[in-house]
Design goal:
By secondary structure, the chain is α/β, with parallel strands linked by helices. Helices cover about 45% and strands about 20% of the residues. The chain has a single domain, classed as Alpha-Beta Complex (Spore Coat Polysaccharide Biosynthesis Protein SpsA, Chain A).
Amino acid sequence: MLSIVIPTLEAVGSLGRTLEAIAGADIAREVIVADGGSADATRRVAARHGARIVDAPRGRGRQLAAGAEAATSEWLLFLHADTVPAPGWAEAVGAFTAAPANRRRAAVFRFALDDPAPAARRLERMVAWRCTTFGLPYGDQGLLIGRRFYDDIGGFAPIPLMEDVDIVRRIGRRRLVVLDVAAVASAERYRRGGYVARPLRNLACLGLYFLGVPPRLIARVYR
């Protein structure tokens, strides 16, 4: 019923936790790891957990598209390699996919970070506000979508950045649901880049995207 697609690149430090969190879920027919050429032990970790490995051109948009193309299920769940769905995720996904009205809708998880710092809670509230006000979740909240609907809107674009914003804009705010289950993302990038500086950089990249700057140029700013 469900194919879970995870793009990876040098993800050995986080992939195992994600795969362990989704292991054994009756709802999942297959787990596909779309790898962009990892030189570390990422592929071994994926194989050890029984995931199907798909080689893909480097770039998250391309990897997500390749994973979706290889998937065989009626529903697709896209997850980042450093995102761990909280307990209850399978039940929430099962309830969403069982409703006929959701065949032309998509869902994301509630955003959470694995950091007890007050700054992490502030960021979580900011993300919740962004999703409620603008209907703009990012890829670290996952994406649950029916195969036919995914194909009808054109799937993930093969772009180096903003592939998550691009597809949720095509889904449309009215057809996007936030599930009442968290996807717990790694806070390492915020601890390293700063709880103020990194969100500001992300906001700047988002602004450039809406101004029509090509994603390949935005990627330079992001890096």
